[in-house]
Design goal:
The chain is of the alpha/beta class. Helix content is 39%, strand content 21%. Helix 1 packs across helix 3.
């Protein structure tokens, strides 16, 4: 059975076509800069090397139409007919409290996703565009949705509620939702299986570290806490996001930096831009890409050294707090672009955690780049492992499970 996985952003589409009998990726790629003057279309398949071409794509429907035409192209396509695609699995960012699992998309589901758009205004509307386009272009395919927030719906109230007047939860559902759920679910499963642990009877801390980053505490197969909150801004220091911040400091900055005659809406927009696009690594060091920051630190750049130290310190604090929340930890998992590929960051995070039984093999750690590997020292009480994430495979598997039901 062939399943197409789509991740539609506000101006982009990432895609994979998988043959689920062998869980084999037949084709994959992306379209960037949708709705702008010149975009880029990337495509690769089992039988053709990666190609990239400039395109002008006005909307998501036109983008998905281009993807489908490439998949069935007689010269470099991978299938003969688009109707070979039995289902489409959509990544949907926000499901609020409405969804705790993947679902087959119906009219009622669409209404609920639309209602959640206020909570994810940059993501859910784009996800909906992808759903509407594939429903039109692939009318015979079953449409399914997997939510970033679903895995974290098992958090207890003590973890997901904020200590603000309860009326804001009642009226607006202001609470921690968490994100990267598909990744945390996948890497925790793989880690437990690889190390021979019973997933339903162990304590795992997963670190999804990329330009966006989050940590999750997973106890007996369930997420009990995670660092991202009502939005993906809360938690860790990230590439361009501040992470946790004293709100009093933000209010102080807003008062100091407000312009004469500036409206409240304009001030809030500017503050949002500062917190989401000009903070984190780029705010401290001038570099949002961890690779660039590490190279600059080797040259003696003090700001990048400080940024790296701040980054590792904050991840370490979450690991310690989640170990306390679970009364221990069996496995620590690193994943995401930084977690999988940056040995200096992993080493800095794990340094000083020996008191709780964390001890990594620095030689193994220094050689590993994007591979599944146990980097624990022999005899380490807590296992530390790198697991490359694969959110597309999670979506495809859950889509298949829905179809089989």
């Amino acid at each position: 059975m062939k399943i197409l996985v789509l991740n539609c952003g506000s101006s982009s589409i990432k895609y994979q076509l998988l043959e689920m009998d062998k869980e084999q990726v037949l084709a994959s790629g992306a379209i960037d800069r949708i709705g702008l003057s010149i975009g880029e279309f990337k495509y690769s398949s089992l039988i053709h090397e990666k190609v990239s071409e400039s395109v002008t794509i006005s909307d998501h429907e036109q983008g998905i139409e281009l993807i489908l035409s490439k998949l069935i192209n007689p010269i470099d396509g991978i299938i003969k007919d688009k109707n070979e695609i039995a289902a489409v699995g959509h990544r949907i960012v926000h499901g609020a409290e409405s969804f705790s699992d993947s679902v087959i998309i119906t009219k009622d589901v669409l209404k609920s996703v639309e209602a959640c758009s206020e909570l994810a205004p940059l993501h859910n509307p784009a996800n909906l565009k992808g759903i509407h386009a594939t429903t039109k272009l692939l009318p015979k395919a079953i449409q399914c949705g997997t939510f970033d927030t679903a895995f974290h719906q098992t958090m207890p109230a003590r973890a997901f509620l904020y200590p603000i007047p309860f009326e804001y939860y009642d009226k607006y559902k202001i609470r921690k939702y968490g994100f990267h759920g598909s990744s945390h679910k996948f890497i925790s499963h793989v880690a437990a299986e690889t190390l021979g642990f019973d997933y339903k009877r162990c304590k795992i801390i997963t670190c999804h570290l990329g330009n966006g980053a989050s940590v999750a505490a997973i106890e007996n197969g369930k997420s009990i806490d995670t660092s991202m909150g009502f939005t993906p801004l809360e938690g860790l220091m990230m590439g361009t996001r501040s992470g946790n911040l004293d709100l009093g400091a933000l209010l102080f900055i807003m008062r100091k930096e407000s312009f004469p005659n500036e409206t409240v809406a304009e001030l809030l927009k500017r503050s949002d831009d500062m917190l989401n696009k000009r903070s984190g690594m780029i705010g401290i060091s001038g570099f949002s890409d961890m690779r660039d920051a590490i190279e600059e630190s080797k040259k003696g750049n003090k700001k990048t050294e400080l940024a790296l130290d701040m980054y590792a310190y904050r991840v370490k604090k979450f690991i310690g707090s989640y170990a306390a929340a679970m009364n221990g930890v069996d496995i620590i998992v690193f994943s995401g672009g930084i977690g999988e590929n940056s040995s200096p960051v992993r080493e800095a995070i794990c340094s000083g955690l020996d008191f709780m039984g964390v001890s990594i093999d620095t030689e193994k750690n220094s050689k590993i780049h994007g591979e599944l590997m146990d980097i624990s020292k022999s005899g380490s009480k807590v296992k530390t492992i790198i697991v490359p994430t694969n959110e597309e495979l999670v979506i495809a598997r859950e889509t298949l499970a829905l179809i089989n039901k």
